[in-house]
Amino acid sequence: MSSFLNRLLNPRPNALGVEIGTSAIKVVALRPGSPPSLQHAVMVPTPIGSMRDGLVVEPQAVATELKNLLAEHRITNKFAVTAVPNQVAVTRNIMVPRMERKDLQEAIKWEAERYIPYPIDDVSLDFDLLDDLSTVPEDGQMEVVIAAAPTEAIARQIEVLRLAGLEPSIVDLKSFASLRALRGNLLGEHLTKSTLTGTNYTEAGEVALVMEIGASSSVINLVRGDRVLMARNINVSADDFTTALQKAFDLDFSAAEDVKLGYATATTPTEDEEDLLNFDMAREQYSPARVFEVIRPVLGDLITEIRRSLEFYRVQSGDVVIDRTFLAGGGAKLRGLAAAISDALGFRVEVASPWLTVQTDQANVDTGYLQANAPEFTVPLGLALRGVTNRG
Ligand code: ATP
Ligand code: MG
């Protein structure tokens, strides 16, 4: 079939969302549709030492793992969307005179120059309209979100995908992907009535806090519907818990990681938890109570950072009531974390449900796995969604 005809018959290709994370390389494959349907959700640990500050430093090593992962699961989609981490990017909401989308590209460049701390020729810019053009008066202003990242950082992510045999199509920002994957929670965009419980999404006008806690990066977003009110990087991420354990018990990183996954809780462990977690006599030294004492300062820092971000927003934009908080990223899986944040800050906190936005019953993966790893798959799912919908 000629490629023209092919495009005509399949206007949107199946897409892969590929997140190259500090802890894991994650791939989500989607087939387009309303809603899109999940084909695969797979991950593999990122080779140790191949990432620094959220960016790939050993492209070949990462590409080999990615290629093997795709081959192992017989994933043949090529069209891939990936992301740069928020640590290297700058995003801003700006006001510009009303104009058509096609004219924005040039205008944005001039505007962006004022906000971006890198030479404009070394960065790549992306933007999205936040206002519906039909609601903006002819001589009015409209709000646009701009995102900029060093071209070098983007090139490195693209290189990994190419080396793995994929066709990189779009490079997004991790936090945008995370929000896109949570449209079910944030906008009530649900697959079927059966997944709509009336408790798992924000109502119109409510403000939600979304926190993506990755291995080496965390981002906090304040959103109302699909409007981002604030986006900030947070200096505490899931690896910091591991590093604290590593120091306290004099372990190497991966042994400390095992202690975290096995024994760490974010609240004072109850007696039942002590019994449940402390089954391994050889590891009696890592009693949940002791492990909790070690990670407690990191937890304190995380909570302080959330408070600071909210304070920052309030100073700039006025008071805001947080109606819901959703946690994503692997860090959200720390036992008791949602409850600990909720206790400290006094608002409702829950782990996000990214899979609400797609049909999962035809997937080559079981529901238990999807549920257990929902936080880690938030970003790659959001990337794949951009691939199949081309929605900003
Ligand atoms: P980044 O995007 O920051 O580069 P990443 O995408 O690789 O990193 P994630 O996969 O979102 O990171 O999360 C991995 C982190 O989540 C690791 O620090 C891991 O220890 C932590 N994590 C995963 N499961 C648990 C758990 N059950 N308890 C505590 N922490 C966990
Ligand atoms: Mg991540």
TrEMBL record:
Keywords: Cell cycle, Cell division. Gene3D superfamilies: 3.30.1490.300, 3.30.420.40. GO terms for biological process: cell division. Coiled coil: none annotated. It comes from the Bacteria. SUPFAM superfamilies: Actin-like ATPase domain. This is Cell division protein FtsA. It comes from Deinococcus caeni. The lineage of its organism: Bacteria, Thermotogati, Deinococcota, Deinococci, Deinococcales. The gene is ftsA_2.
